[in-house]
Amino acid sequence: MEIDVSNHGLVPKHTKISDAEKEKFLSSHSLSLRDLPKILITDPAIVCINVKAGDVIKIERVSMTAGTAVYYRVVVNG
Amino acid sequence: MKSEHQSLIESYEGKLPLLVLEEIKEALPASVSKEKVKRILDETLASYTAAKINPGECVGLVSAESIGEPGTQMTLNTFHFAGVSEMNVTTGLPRIIEIFDAQKTIKTPMMEVYFKKEANTIEKVKAFAMELKETHFGDFASSFSLNIFEQTLSVEFNMSLLADHKMNTKDLLKALKFKSKGFTAEATTNSIVFTQKGKPEEIKDLYALKEKVRVTRVKGIKGVKQVLPVKRGEEYVVLTSGTNLNEVLMLPEVDTSRTICNDINEVYAVLGIEAARQSIINEVYKVIEAQGLNIDIRHIMLVADIMCVSGVLKGVTRYGVVSEKASVLARASFETPVRHLINAALEGEVDALTSVVENVMINQPVPLGTGLPGLITKLK
């Protein structure tokens, strides 16, 4: 049985961003996908949101210093 | 709060962190003109911008120093009694090392199990704690006796202990999932008798059976060695020694949003890389706070980010974070230099000298601060 971890206090909100948003985000920071931090496709936090390798996940962290901090990770095959 | 102030403050979202804006909102007196609010926000933005780290600043080095220096004052005590509980907790430097090295087996694995509101009464929590604890067949037995002539192994039980767990011998036998070939088992009110079917000379098997059933888990969750219900604020929480986050989270009574464990690797496996990062920060901060040290949380965040950047939890060791470094010289400067250099030579590795350590070694400007940007000259 798989447990839904998305409501756990330690797990921030993970959302997949659309391809258009992805392009915009990458070009506005002049980044390539290789420069982004990674997240495995098998990660428990993203198994229930249908993703494939190369997708960018937007993570809204609850931060002690900034309130909400946005972080991006690229999905990679483990 | 007037709506015009509200919208003015909202227009600064994106420029200032939300937490700062919240703070300003709370601190504003009721009667304040719009111009003054604007001035407050502009002043805040100016000092926020001034406090931002410049590109090329060596934040890692600053973090290393900021954690390392107070770290020298940390106690080396491994054990200490945490409050009312009688459980040992690893604290101080050994715990910090454990977390930053992302060690697979930690010295004192623990869980904090929270409950849903409807299950949060002292009786229910106590009963649940009993359910959690891993109990072996042998824990209930008061005596084992081998009868060589009749080829039987009879087990007597501590009946009051069984009653505490609301079990009887039949339940025990069922929980044992008795599968061993060549034996029959029979339960009476206060004992279980195993009878061997084979020839008399196979008495060794009977002895092996005894050893096997003794350590068979009949109740509870694997890995949970000790349980302790405690009151925290208005509710009851069960602290456990020994962890099994995955199975505990599957139980219906458990509040799955708050139940945590202190084993970072387990958090990573069950909840993912982001939860592991948050867990590292929380656990390190707990130690630092307990020691009365003052380390800015941003330094710990940076270390946690580095440990989690590859999507896999990596410790700050030569097998983890350091092995990710592109430069041979940088890796060799950390630990086991000769081995790194020999391997690099065998593989024909090329060092592009793009980072700090290798440039320090060969006496070149390091790519930090003003050394980071290059100059481009327009040729005529």
Mean pLDDT of chain A: 89
Strand content bin of chain B:
5-15%
Radius of gyration of chain B: 30 Å
Number of self-contained structural domains of chain B: 4
Strand order of the largest sheet of chain A: 1-3-4-2
Shape of chain A: globular
Q: Biggest β-sheet of chain A: count, sense, barrel?
A: 4 strands, mixed
Lateral strand order in the biggest sheet of chain B: 8-9-1-10
CATH class type of chain A: Alpha Beta
Task: Give an account of the 3D structure.
The complex is a heterodimer of chains A (78) and B (380). In chain A, a hairpin with a 3-residue loop joins strand 3 (56-63) and strand 4 (67-76). Chain A has one domain: Alpha-Beta Complex (Eukaryotic RPB6 RNA polymerase subunit), CATH 3.90.940. Chain A has a 4-stranded mixed β-sheet with strand order 1-3-4-2, with no helix packed on it. By secondary structure, chain A is mainly beta. Chain A is 13% helix and 32% strand. Chain B has 4 domains: 3-51, no CATH class; 59-107 and 262-313, PTS-regulatory domain, PRD (Orthogonal Bundle), CATH 1.10.1790; 135-219, Gyrase A, domain 2 (2-Layer Sandwich); 325-363, DNA polymerase, domain 1. Chain B has a 4-stranded antiparallel β-sheet with strand order 8-9-1-10. In chain B, helix 1 packs parallel to helix 3 (34-51) and helix 13 runs antiparallel to helix 14. The relative contact order of chain B is 0.11. The mean pLDDT of chain B is 85.
Topology:
The complex is a heterodimer of chains A (78) and B (380).
Chain A: E1 13-16, H1 19-28, E2 38-40, E3 56-63, E4 67-76
Parallel strand pairs in A: 2-4
Antiparallel strand pairs in A: 1-3, 3-4
Chain B: H1 3-10, H2 18-27, H3 34-51, H4 59-71, H5 92-100, E1 110-113, H6 122-132, E2 135-136, H7 137-140, E3 141-147, E4 152-157, H8 159-164, H9 169-175, E5 183-187, E6 191-196, H10 203-214, E7 217-219, E8 226-232, E9 235-241, H11 245-249, E10 260-261, H12 264-271, H13 273-290, H14 297-308, H15 328-332, H16 337-347, H17 356-361
Antiparallel strand pairs in B: 1-9, 1-10, 2-7, 3-4, 4-6, 5-6, 8-9
